[in-house]
Amino acid sequence: MSDTNNSDMDQELVREFLAESLEALESLDGLFVILEKQPEDVSTVDRIFRPIHSIKGNSSFFGLLNIKNFSHSMENILQEIRSRKRVISPKLTDMLLQGVDLLRGMLEKFAEGAQDMSFTAAEQECLDKFNAELSSGGSDLADQAKTVNRMFKELQSSDISEEYKGKLKELSGIVNDLIRIVVPADPDTSEELETTYFVGDQDITDNFKTVSHFVHNVTEASNDQDACENFMEALSALRGSADKAKSEALSEHLNAMYNDFTTIQNAGIGFDDLMAGLLRERLDGALSSVKAVSADVDEPAEKMPESTPAPAVAVEEEVKEPAPAVAPTARAAEEKAAASSGSKTIRVEEEKVDSFMGFVGELIIASEVFNYLQKKLEKFPQVRDITQEFKNANISFNELSNNLQRSLMAVRRVALRSIMQKMPRLVRDLCSSTGKKVNLIIEGDNTQVDKSLLEGLENPLVHMVRNSLDHGLESPEDRIKAGKPETGTVILRANADEETFRLVIQDDGRGLDLEAIRSKAVEKGTITAEKARTMSDQETALLIFGAGVSTAKKITDISGRGVGMDVVKTNIEKLGGSITIDTVLGKGTSFTITLPMTVTLMVVDGLIARVGTESYIMPVMEVRESVRPRKDQIKTVAGKGEFIDVRGELYRLIRLEQVLGLKADYASDVETTVIIIESKNCACGVLVDDVLGQQSVVLKDLGKQFSALEFLQGAAVMGDGRIGLVMDAEGLINVSLQ
Q1: CA–CA distance, 281 with 297 (Å, rounded to integer)
Q2: Is residue 272 packed enough to be buried (19+ CB in 10 Å), middle (13-18) or exposed (0-12)?
Q3: Cβ–Cβ contacts within 10 Å for residue 318, how many?
Q4: What is the distance between the alpha carbons of residues 389 and 371, in angstroms, rounded to a whole number?
Q5: For position 194, what pLDDT does the model report?
Q6: C-alpha span between 107 and 493 (Å, rounded)
Q7: C-alpha to C-alpha distance for 478 and 510, rounded to whole angstroms
Q8: How far apart are CA 458 and CA 447, in angstroms?
Q9: Which pLDDT score, from 0 to 100, does residue 185 have?
Q10: In principle, which of 81, 265, 463, 615 could form an S-S bond with 724, CB 3.0–4.6 Å?
Q11: pLDDT confidence of residue 491
Q12: Residue whose C-alpha is closest to residue 717's, from 608, 569, 571, 567
C-alpha cells in the first residue's frame, strides 16, 4: 500500500491523525440519515464531506495510499451531491455508509500496527462500486439545466407573438431561479445560465469566469504559459475589486488562492488531484463571498439588498487540506485554535487519567486519616492551640482534595452524543429490514457521563433499541388497525445529576403482555405457578431479563431468541446500575437505566456502623434514617421473620451479625441501632451495635473471590487505617427475602 514504514513516522502525529479521523467518522452515520430525509440540506452534505476530505489529505501525508484512494472516491461522490450533480438516494446512502464502515476498519487496522494494508475483497468491491457510480454520471442536474435553458432560448427565437415572448421570458426567469437553487454556478453551466457575478456594486463576471475556468482545468492549464498569465491577471483584478469593495472574506480566499498557486507552481511539483482540489476549495470559498444573479432578471443587481444573497450561492464553510510539507494534525490544530474563542483542548491517554485518578483516591484516604487524627487531638486540651492550627490546615486540605476530585471527574466526562449519534443509522437499517416506520427522538445527548460508563453502556443500548423496534413496535398495518399512526416512535432520553445518570428507552408500541411473560417463565421453569400468581406487574416485567424468556411469536435475526436481555441486565449491574420497566398493554413500554456517574473512582459518603469489633459502611444514598428501637417496636411474624415498626410502617429486620457470621456486643435489642435502608421500591431495617458517624471513603473492588457476596459493594480504608466493608442495600434486602 505504501513505502512508508510505521517506525519512520512521528508516532505522536500518527496517534493524533487516527484519533481525529476515527472520532470524525463516528458522527457520519447520523448525518447520512439526516441527509437522506433532507437531501436539500447543503450544510449536512458539508458536515459529511469535511471529515472524508480531511482523511483523504492526511492519509496521503502518511503514505496510506489505499486509504487515500478509497476516501478520494467517496469524496468525489459527495462533491457531486454537494454541487447538486447527483441526488442522494437510499441505494447511494447504503453504499456510502458501507464505505464509512470499511474506512473505519482500515484506520483501525492501521492503528493496530498492520503491515499489509492492501485492500480486502470487501474494500475492493466497495471501491469498484464507487468508481462505477462515478462513471455512470448519476443524475446530472447540470446537464438537465442546460437542456431546459436551450429549450427556452429556441422558443424565444421562434416565430411567436411578442405577448407570448414576454410571458415566455417571465417563465424563463422563474425556471432559472429554480435551477440556481439545485445547480450552483460553475464554469460549465454559467454560460448557459447567463450568470453575472458581483462584489458590492462591481461586475466581476469576466474575471471570475476566467479564474473559475482555469482552476477547474488547472491540471492541464498550469502547463500553458498564456493560460497561467491570463489567470494571474484576472486573479489580481479580482483581488483589487475585493479590496475596493472592502470584502474581507473574498480577499482572504483570493489571497489564499494566489499564495497556494504560486507556491505549488514555483516548486515545480505539478497539480495532481490533491493540489487541484486545494485550489477548487479556495474558489468555492470565493464563490460564497460574491453575488451570482441571472442576466434575465429585470431588476438591476445593485438594487438587491446586501443581506439577501441570491439562492444560487450556497454558503459553505471552508475546508482546508494540508499541503504535503505541513503536518496535517499540526495545521488542524492551528485552524482550531484560530477559530476558537479562547477555549483550548488537549488529548490525554486514558491510562494517564486513570493513574492520576488513583492518586486522587489515595489523597482522599489521606484526608480521612487527617480527620481521624484531628478527632484524637481534640481529646487533649493541653495541645488545644496546635489542634486548632491542625484543624484549620485540615479543613483547607479537605476542600482542596474534594475540588481536585470533582475537577478530575469532570475531565473524564464526555458527552453521550458519541453513542447516541449511532442510533439513527441503527434505526434506519432496522426499518429497512423489517419494513417498519419509526420516528427516533433523541433528548439529552449532550449529557456528560464518565467515559467508563459510556463504553459499558453502548452494547446494552444497541440491544434495547433493537428490541424496541423488533418486539415493541407493531408493523404499519397492525398500527393502523390499532388506531395508531403507521409510524411508530422511539424516544431516547438522558439526564444526570451529580450522583446519578438515567437513560430512558421508550416506545409507543404494543407494550408487554405480562400474562404471556408469566406463562413463558413458568414453562421455562424460571418461576413456579404459585409464584406467578403472587408476582406484581413490576416483578413480572423484569422476568424478560431472564435467559430464555421471550414472548416473540416469530424468531428473527434481530431478536426473539430469548438471549440478550439477560446480558443487558448483567452488563448494567456490572456498572453498578439497575433497570426498571413501565408498560401498558397496547400503549407502549419504557425502560429506565439508572447508573452511578462513575465506576472509576467511587467515593462513597457513608454511615460507619459497628458490629462487635468491626466497622461497616452503609452508603448514605441508600439510608432513609436510623432509629433507636424500643422493645415493643420489634415484632416476630410467624413464617415471615422479624419486623420493626417505625411510626406504623413495618420493615423486615436484618440482624447484620447473622448475615456476616459475627458476635455482636448488644445484650438486648434496645441497646442497638436500626438503620433503615432502601433499594428501588423496597426498604428494610438493619440492626447494628452502634452508628459511629459519617465518613467519605474510596470504594475498592474486593475481587472475584468475593463476587458471590451480593450484599457487599467493596471495601474501603478507614481513617484509622483499618479496612471497612461497604454494604449494598439491594443485596442485603435480597438476602433477607431468601
Answers
A1: 29
A2: exposed
A3: 16
A4: 13
A5: 54
A6: 32
A7: 10
A8: 15
A9: 45
A10: 615
A11: 94
A12: 608
Residues 53 and 75: their CA atoms lie apart, in Å, by 6
Query: Between the CA of residue 341 and those of 317, 337, 338, 345, 365, what are the distances in Å?
Result: 17, 8, 8, 12, 39
- The SS3 of residue 680 is coil
Cell of 562: 430469548
pLDDT mean values, one per 10 residues, the chain (738 residues)? 52 81 85 82 82 84 85 87 78 89 90 84 89 69 56 65 68 60 46 65 86 83 85 90 87 88 80 73 79 45 34 32 38 39 58 72 77 80 80 81 76 83 88 89 88 83 89 91 93 87 92 88 84 83 73 52 66 83 91 80 80 87 88 83 88 87 84 86 86 82 75 79 83 77
Would you state the cell numbers that stand for residue 94, as one nine-digit string?
447504503
Give me the DSSP letters along 230-290.
HHHHHHHHHHHHHHHTT-HHHHHHHHHHHHHHHHHHHHT----HHHHHHHHHHHHHHHTTS
Q: Where are the alpha helices (DSSP H) in 626-674?
A: 656-660
Query: Residue 278's pLDDT is what?
Result: 75
Please give the Cα distance from 110 to 105 (Å, whole number): 9
Which residues, 6 or more positions from 141, have their beta carbon under 8 angstroms from its beta carbon?
A: 84, 85, 86, 87, 182, 183
Q: Given this model, what pLDDT does residue 523 score?
A: 85
> Euclidean distance between the first and final Cα of the chain, in Å?
63
Q: How far is CA 562 from CA 194, 279, 311, 526, 549, in A?
A: 65, 57, 55, 13, 5
Residue with cell 470565493: 286
**What sections of 10-64 are H helices per DSSP?**
11-26, 28-37, 42-61
